Amino acid sequence: MKIELKKIDSTQREMQVYLEGEKVKEKFEEVFKQIGKEAKVAGFRPGHVPRPILEKHYAKEADEQVLRELLPQVYKEAVEKEKLEVLNYPYIEEVKLNRDSLFFKAKLEVMPEVPLKNYRGIKVHHRTISVTDEEVEKYLSALAKKRKIEQMDDKFARGLGYFNLEELKDSLQKQIFLEKQNQNRQEKEKEIFDYLLKEADFKVPVSLKERKLQEILRQAKLELSLKGLAKEAIEEKEKELIQQLQPEAEIQARLQVILMQIAKKENIALDQEEGFGRVIEFLLQEADWGK
Hints:
This protein is 58% helix and 11% strand. It is built from 9 helices and 4 strands; from the N terminus they run E-E-H-H-E-E-H-H-H-H-H-H-H. Strand 3 and strand 4 (101-109) form a beta hairpin.
């Protein structure tokens, strides 16, 4: 296999692939055997049609089947050989197939190489988390208000599944603490993300940005639906939503590229369910938490 790889820009590549020899011949042999089992040609029984006759009557079908089976395989091998991180389906053109050779061009989009600056020791602000009695009382008052200002006593607590008012207050205190802890982590993550985005300047792959746009568009439409907006009204707002969400899609796509590069450099395995959780944990571990 001969491969010529041309760099169009930081994310676009053009790959010319030329394959000749036994691999193509063997695929044609395999395909004509399959066709020959069911081919119907006057004067011959199925399975007994001579190869020259098959080629005369079924050349087009054989070419199409060879391309369907061989081209994707050859393309995959070429991508692996060139160690390309491909982001989208290729645009295949100039396909030339003979009985012993295959040639095609593939235009594709790849993950850009990001010149990462130091991502260890990113400054994050840490604050000690505490919950005051006043905050607990505020939550209690909000609960009582929802239940039409019932008297806040042990009976009130038992109606919510707690033994007494003290146990309810203790549960609320823990809940508020966890909410603050989660918010504190999100703030640290944002500080890290802002730093990474500020330090990396590169072209965002179009297909990756489009993928992110579709993800957040689906979420936005779902939220509108949950708010009671009719499907027709949501569809009418789609163009407006797309325009509004473009900047966020750009940011998310840019951040994804950066996190993928860090994962690659640090040999951090990416899990489909966890997303970039392990990379973020690594960045938090390596961050400068101050005093």
